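As a warm-up, study this chain.
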Amino acid sequence: MKVLLTGATGYIGKRLLLELVRNEHHVICCVRDENRFNPPESIRENLEVLEIDFLNPSPTITLPTDIDAAYYLMHSMSTDADYEKLELQVAENFTKLTENTEIQQVIYLSGIVNESALSKHLSSRKAVENKLSEGKYHLTTLRAGIIIGSGSASFEIIRDLVEKLPVMITPKWLNTKCQPIGIKDVIDILSSSLGKEKLYNKNLDIGGPDVLSYKQMLLQYAQVRKLKRFIFTVPVMTPRLSSYWLYFVTSTSYKLATALVSSMKVEVVCRDSRINQTLDVKPKPYKECLRKTFMKIEDHEMVSSWTDALGSGVMNNHLSEFLNVPTYGCFKDQRSSLMFNKKRTIDRIWQIGGETGWYHATWLWRMRGFMDKLFGGVGLRRGRRHPSQLATGDAVDFWRVLLADKSNGRLLLFAEMKLPGEAWLEFKIIGEELVQTATFRPTGILGRLYWYMVYPFHGIVFNGMVKELAK
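Now compare it with the structure written out below.
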């Protein structure tokens, strides 16, 4: 089949793409920025790339007419406070663009919306479903709750809380019930639903066999990890205070934390499991999903992460717009060092950030990350997807990868921390030297004051880092 895949650079989309190609479908990948799309070379002949922004589609853009089915995997929850309006507009534009195609089925991954009183996030998911149902195709809506898998926002929040806090004083919404499902089961259900006429014009809940409270999920995680943890719930935490608590303790952004907190007060439990019989699938229990997730992390097999979405930081533009580092009106800090071993230096550059750290004065980087968190930024807790591999669009702590050319030894990063301006950090091999350049384009007087305030630390941080990388 010829399948349109929206959200191809997202957490679900990256994994579903591999499964669709494995099942010998031809996939048209819709991406906002082609520079961020890095599929494996082995599958490129089975896909096409269509650069399209469904929020603001170009008047000249059209979808191929001979598409058989489409996956709708787009959302804006972590990118804008007014995401309800944005999501509805995206759904409307998508529906209009499919009018002149032969699409028979659209599969939409939504959230479980069985309660009468829904959060803003879940209400938005339901509104999108209603809008998509107006299309001339057959809509299949698969409603999921918490998705457990390496790199998922839900799993990373659970991991942060349990690994870091032996004792937790938590909001009362931790007693809310949910029905988690493993990412592998989600992908299997999504791919198996393709072309199934029994699922046309239906909405179905998908979930694992366990119905648990969020507190039970945390405690069972601790059991799997052989950690002793104590959790006490209190009724006094307001939604705002709960959001700040989640934001500071975990790696999530504040916008995402706010959306999640409002949703965690609503039970997300499946109505039934009809789809399991229809598709002949048997979702795994929660603890088994955790064990499989740990295996993937230990083997460095994380295909995608919630941080792949640009909304996990502050950059929502095309990466290509930042590839040419500006010079006019900018401050620069450029340092170089002779390399002892070129290959080793490049390998060390490609391992920078995350668990490895920044090679020199990492405590200053951590302090800067903490300050960024205080001002509502992403901080250092996003880490990185893989300890030694980098691709365009990856997150590296509070940086975003703009260019990763390992064969020529060039890495270009763009800052997603809160700044009164824009910042780039570039590593480049020239002859036998490693050249490291920090560029800052200030915004107004505040931006210039900021540069002069942090400049004394550059001698410690940047000078030490380039020497450590090159030695």
